[in-house]
Amino acid sequence: MPLTPSKPDQISPHPRPDTVSLVIPVYNEAKMLPLLRRAVEDWSESVSFHQEVILVDDGSSDGSLLFLREWAESASWVRVLSFSRNFGHQSAIYAGLMNATGDVAVVIDADLQDPLEVIPKMVERYVEGYAVVFGVREERRGESFFKRVTAWGFYRVMRRFIHPDLPLDAGDFRLVSRPVIETLRCMPERDRFLRGMFAWMGFPQTSVLYRRQERRAGETKYPLLKMVRFAYDGILSFSAAPIRLIALSGILTAGFGFAYGLYTVGRWLLVGDTVEGWPSIIVLISLIGGMILLALGVVGEYVGRIYEAIKSRPSYIVKEQINPAPKWHE
């Protein structure tokens, strides 16, 4: 279901794209890359538009770059960007989009859990007039119950409290048009949450449903700690809600202390009970002290991000490019 616009007459059809850039971030996927190459080459023969493939090696240490180099040297329409170190999944996607030269670009992970066969459907929705077409997972095969539940909760909490236009159950698998890419180029943020950035732009957006496949080889690059960090970055990158939550918690804590004080005085006046006071003091000190430390931590996180931003360091460094000039596969 489209996010914006809400009415079909608010969009204008696009000409059918002649060129499509496939952006694929890669990090330690040596076991998966032969399968990826076979799938991409088979897919490229089945579509009518010209393609280029941009593989972004995010500082792999398992031999992935050797395979990518061999692949690019044997196929001029395959381009490789190799980072000097691991800069993260979002930086790899951003680098690929900044180097894409197609009429549209499609972001897809190297694990093939997001099927290439969905891309022509995305192209059709683009032709209808949408600038961003994202894939929505109606089924997540091969994932644990815990991961499915936490992912379900993450998107709904983000949409409810942080970003009301964030698509539900949609990852980074999406088609973006050339105007969207150029707009993204004008947003020099360091800690990027691209899913939220695309939603924030406000271009006409819609979705296609698909069934996410099981990973065929290798291991997931988003274990629990990385998932938590990704959610944390998404929240801090798009909202001051944590600071507001701290302010609300401070008000509630102060109210609790005031109410407890009235209760103690009333008990002494009405019942004549002498309260020792030690437990209540310890509880209140611990509660207030914990709130202060939490507040300092959250504010410090925002200040740290400001510090990183004002240094104006690049979000990634490319140490090697293979086939930097695009040559289209027909």
Fold and architecture overview:
31% of the residues are buried. The two termini are 32 Å apart. Helix content is 47%, strand content 17%. The model is unreliable at 1-7 (pLDDT under 50). The chain has 2 domains: 8-238 and 315-322, Spore Coat Polysaccharide Biosynthesis Protein SpsA, Chain A, CATH 3.90.550; 241-310. The chain has helices spanning 33-44, 64-74, 89-99, 119-128, 145-162, 178-185, 194-201, 224-238, 241-270, 278-310, and strands spanning 19-26, 50-57, 78-83, 104-107, 132-140, 170-177, 205-212, 318-322. It is elongated. With 330 residues, it is an alpha/beta fold. It has an 8-stranded mixed sheet with strand order 7-5-6-4-1-2-3-8, sandwiched between helices.
Please render the helix and strand layout as text.
Layout: E1 19-26, H1 33-44, E2 50-57, H2 64-74, E3 78-83, H3 89-99, E4 104-107, H4 119-128, E5 132-140, H5 145-162, E6 170-177, H6 178-185, H7 194-201, E7 205-212, H8 224-238, H9 241-270, H10 278-310, E8 318-322
Parallel strand pairs: 1-2, 1-4, 2-3, 5-7
Antiparallel strand pairs: 3-8, 4-6, 5-6
Helix pairs in contact: 5-8, 9-10
Please give a quick description of this structure.
By secondary structure, the chain is an alpha/beta fold. It folds into two domains: about 10-240 and about 315-320, Spore Coat Polysaccharide Biosynthesis Protein SpsA, Chain A; about 240-310. Helix content is about 45%, strand content about 15%.
Distance between the termini: 32 Å
Oligomer: single chain
Determine the structural class based on helices, strands and strand pairing.
alpha/beta
The beta-strand count equals 8
Q: What is the CATH H-level superfamily of the largest domain? A: Spore Coat Polysaccharide Biosynthesis Protein SpsA, Chain A
Percent helix: 40-55%
Tally of helical segments? 10
Strand line-up in the sheet with most strands: 7-5-6-4-1-2-3-8
